[in-house]
Here is the input.
Amino acid sequence: MEKRDLTCIICPLGCMLEVNIDGERIGVSGNTCPRGENYARKEVTEPARMVTTTVRIKGREKGQVPCKTAKDIPKEKIFDVVRRLKEVEAVTPVRVGDTILPDAAGTGVAVVATANVD
Here is the structure.
């Protein structure tokens, strides 16, 4: 049996979780709500993260627009997404929610703007 200690990142409580993995069986303790259990199960089977960064604005030497993935992506794809975004230039005007990159590193998840830039 494998044991992992995690800190839940879903809410500000930061519950200390103990996850016991025995083949297909996963036991979670230490959570104060069901979200903590769901987080722990996903973290040990399919870890995923949101990516937040900035993208250059075309034609501006110092201009950038903040952006993020529309939902979490597999953890192992984070660096692929960031590398790809280094090649992308946003065209103004940009509005919150505009798609900056439609498919982040083959994940099917879009990267969207998180601020307006004129």
User: Anything to note?
Assistant: Residues 28 and 38 are 9 Å apart (CA to CA). Strands lie at 2-7, 16-22, 25-29, 48-49, 52-57, 64-69, 73-74, 89-90, 99-101, 111-113. Helices lie at 34-45, 78-85.
